[in-house]
Fold:
Amino acid sequence: MSPHEAQEIYCESDEESCCIVFPMKRSVSFGEIEIREYNRIVGDSNANILVGPPVSIGWDFVQQDAVELDTFERHRTVHRRKAALKMCHMQRSELLRNVFLVPASEIRAVEKEIQQMRKEARTQAKNKQEQRKNKAAEKIKAASAATSVATATPTKASFGLFRGLGKSARRPGSVVAQ
Structure:
């Protein structure tokens, strides 16, 4: 029996037959890992980057030799926190220019494009906000116009009818049973 199959044991007693099922043991194991080192390029707009060029990975890569997972884990450097993986705009620019030989003109062009996109996004956000305010103002005007027509202003004579009744009956527009 393979380790991936459930094991069943049948037994018979005087009263009835039974079946006991022992679930299979599941396990996961890893052998070798393959590491690829990708080149870095000037990336597309990234919402997390406010200043400087975004960095992305390109399609070109260098394939490293396969390594046993245990060996890799023993020789690997300490895990870095997420904050340590972030680079400031100067580091990104230096990396692109000096290590990956991206021309400064290309970096500046992408930075200008991103600034223009952000400016357009802010304008669109302002326009949407203004539209929402206008719609809300129209709804309020329509609601106030409808209530002013439907609600009559109580007079001194009508207050006499409400004397002795609870507060709920004194609200304008409420029905009083007589």
Remarks:
- Residues 32-116 form one domain.
- The longest strand covers residues 55-63.
